[in-house]
From TrEMBL:
Residues 2-245 form the ABC transporter domain. GO terms for molecular function: ATP binding. PROSITE patterns: ABC_TRANSPORTER_2. This is Energy-coupling factor ABC transporter ATP-binding protein. It comes from Halorubrum laminariae.
Length: 249
């Protein structure tokens, strides 16, 4: 479970927990409280610059709030960063930024190796994670030869190999063609069905809204709307996000 209480994040100006009243700089996330349960499929929507990326990066301590608290499974994220990063896997906006090895297998093994898993455990996790993204037996493929969609799936596999409770994907469909987008959606649907909590950050709600248990719409760093998709849809149309066909304003 991820629990946020009054989280505020700012860039620039004076930083730090003691100067949250300094009005200089940009307030990227503004007093957000939120609880995400195990198994939940959550969509975080909002226009460019509304604070989506900054918000989700607080979930595993990548961004430390200037005010408020984040806890993961009951422990403050900043008190145990390893636990937070093991429980909350993250796939960044540009998957190339997070691929660290030259082959698929070495890349997916990187996380479990750092966790100190045994060789047998690493092999099992790599095989399971590649199966989950439909890339079984592609361990030896060189990263440089993969398409953008395949790289995205390797990045997802790398996060899955940590066996996280929550998987966060930041704009996972950017730059993907239609087959790759549908393939990633298919994988997310299967992961959710298998019990992983999936959190998708997007300004494009086509397709993904059908999978969501709940959607949060951000505007200027604040939660403008939160609820099941059917209830949130009307208000989401005011936020400048791309809605599924038939729901455009
Ligand atoms: N490293 C940074 N330094 C300074 N300002 C930043 C930084 N990262 C984000 N911001 C600012 O914080 C605000 C929120 O940005 P953030 O990237 O969290 O929003 P977003 O909704 O994810 O945007 P996008 O859809 O464009 O990715 C914006 O005003 C942005 O310019």
């Amino acid at each position: 479970m991820i629990d946020l209480d009054g989280v505020t994040c700012r860039y620039g100006g004076s930083r730090g927990k003691d100067d949250v009243d300094d009005a200089s700089g940009v307030v990227a996330v503004d007093d957000v409280s939120l609880r995400i349960d195990h198994g939940e499929f959550l969509v975080v929507a909002g226009p460019n610059g509304s604070g989506k990326t900054t918000l989700v990066r607080t979930f595993n301590g990548l961004v430390e709030p200037d005010a408020g608290t984040v806890s993961v499974n009951g422990t403050p994220a900043d008190a145990d960063l390893v636990a937070a990063r093991s429980a909350v896997g993250m796939v960044f906006q540009e998957p190339r930024d997070q691929l660290v090895a030259s082959t698929v297998g070495a890349d997916v093994a990187f996380g479990p190796e750092n966790l100190g898993c045994t060789h047998e455990e690493i092999d099992r996790r790599v095989a399971d994670a590649l199966a989950a993204v439909n890339m079984t037996r592609r361990e030896d493929a060189r990263i440089g030869t993969l398409s953008g969609g395949e790289r995205e799936r390797v990045a997802i596999a790398g996060a899955l190999a940590m066996e996280p409770d929550h998987l966060v994907l930041d704009e996972p469909f950017t730059g993907l063609d239609e087959p790759a987008r549908l393939s990633v959606l298919d994988r997310l649907r299967a992961l959710h069905a298998a019990g992983t909590s999936v959190i998708v950050v997007t300004h494009d709600l086509r397709d993904v809204l059908d999978l969501a248990d709940r959607v949060i719409g951000l505007a200027d760093g604040r939660v403008a709307v939160v609820g099941p998709p059917s209830e949130a849809l009307a208000e989401l149309s005011n936020l400048g996000v791309r809605l599924p066909a038939g729901h455009d304003p």
